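This part of the workshop introduces the protein records we will be handling. Each record describes a single protein and holds just a pair of labelled lines. Instead of coordinates, the fold is spelled out as a row of discrete tokens. To make this concrete, we reproduce a full record directly below:
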Amino acid sequence: MELFLIAAVTILITILIVKLIKSHKRVIELETKYSKILDIEEYVKKFHHEKVSMQKKISEMKQDYKEKRVIFDQLRRDVSTYDEDIELIELGFYKSHFDFDTSHQYKSEIIKIKQQQKDMVRSQIAISCAAEWKVEGSRAKGKAMTNRGIKLTARAFNNECEAAISNVRWNNVTRMEARLEKAFESINKLNQSTAIVISDDYLNLKLDELRLAYEYSEKKQQEKEEQLEIKRQIREEAKLEKELSKAIKEEEKYKKMLEAARLEAEQAAGKELELLNEKISQLSDELESAHQLSERAKSMAQQTKTGHIYVISNIGSFGDDIYKIGMTRRLEPLDRVKELGDASVPFTFDVHAMIHTEDAPALENALHKKFEGKRLNLVNNRKEFFAVNLQDIEKEVLKINPKAEFIETAEAKEFRESQSILATREQQSKLSKVMSEYPETL
């Protein structure tokens, strides 16, 4: 019995020792695994130093980027001087330097400026040398070298100027000015060792020539558009004269018909007389209408200010809330609207208002001034399209003409029908595609 107890105790002790050894090994493994983070303070200090180092590097990179960005912007500006595709937003607005009334005056001024340049070159004021050079001890050879340098400088600068002047347009005029100034600075810098200098006065003459060339082309275009407007007004007045002639003939026709009917009625009786009296009444009404039309045509032909102000839209062509506010002096103002909706736009215009007024130019001008900030074309005021709400136009017109009537809904018939046809085609296309996925027979 004692032996049994001793054996059992021995086995139990052995088991405990084995477990103890395993537990100790596990503790050693855990200590080994997490030994790097046991000291938390040391761990935090280490990463704090890394953070400070990283922030320093970031700060240095930001400063380095800032310095390089300055260089990049400068290079980009230099390159853009010769880049024809620069964005319009970078161009700035060109301010006119001259204010001549006609293109002929601009042309005369260009000739005058060019002559001044030639005089400066001949007088050796345009490009000069501030030093007296000797070559191999010879002043004559030094003078010859200087003259060659001046000629090369003149050729280089003049060629640069000619290239800029011949290519100047509305979207690059300020850039071409910068190009001339850049060429002036660069050539003078290259010539520092020889003391050859292009004068500021010569540069200013070249800049004036550039600006005159640009403004000359703009004035020519403006004169062309003014001539077109004058021709359009002449056509309008010719149509008014034609309409007046037609109205007078109509009135004369009804007068003769009425006189003939009255003469016939004097000799008629009974049923025939009744019919003739009805005819006379109808002809009297028609004569009165013809007379009113004739008087109106006379008034419009004599008073060129009398006319109609129209407010029209074209959703299919220009989108929502885009309106044209224009004027016509035609006897049939809708003819002008039909003319505007010809082959130059895909859809016809919708008329929202047609206002007859004794002073059409004044009303049109008042409306244009009111919505000046809403113009779509800020360059050509003859393009009378405005991004404005119709209610705002109506409100402004009613202040001037309380009897004016507005149609708020834009029918846009052709546009909506076209959209409907496109939607139908798209639906049919989708249906055809779906149907094609299913074979006719299995």
